[in-house]
Design a protein that fits this description.
Number of helices: 2
CATH superfamily: HesB-like domain
Helix content: 10-25%
CATH architecture: Sandwich
Number of domains: 1
CATH class: Mainly Beta
Radius of gyration: 13 Å
């Protein structure tokens, strides 16, 4: 997995908040809504799950649930901030 500059900047800002624990990161896991092929979910968490793979990108941490690790291994994590400061993460195919 790779991070775009935008994702790194957004995550860095989120984890620099003084109320967020130092070990916090973005956790990517399956959204249990679809049993056949669950969508992916991402949320800021205080620490990784017990079996999560921990990826570090210049001080930004991403925790990947082993159940989805194969689905995101060759992807790029991107982020955008909407007009209401809502953060939306996208996991895209690598190009090039």
């Amino acid at each position: 997995m790779e991070l775009t500059d935008a994702a790194s900047e957004v995550l860095g800002g989120m984890t620099q908040d003084p109320t967020v624990p130092d070990a916090a990161g973005l956790r990517i896991c399956a959204d249990e809504g679809d049993v056949e092929r669950p969508a992916l979910a991402a949320a800021l968490t205080a620490e990784p799950g017990a079996d999560d793979e921990v990826l570090e990108f210049g001080g930004v941490r991403v925790f990947v649930d082993p159940a989805v690790a194969d689905r995101v291994a060759d992807r790029v994590l991107d982020a955008e901030v909407g007009p209401d400061d809502e953060v939306v993460f996208h996991i895209r195919r690598r190009t090039g």
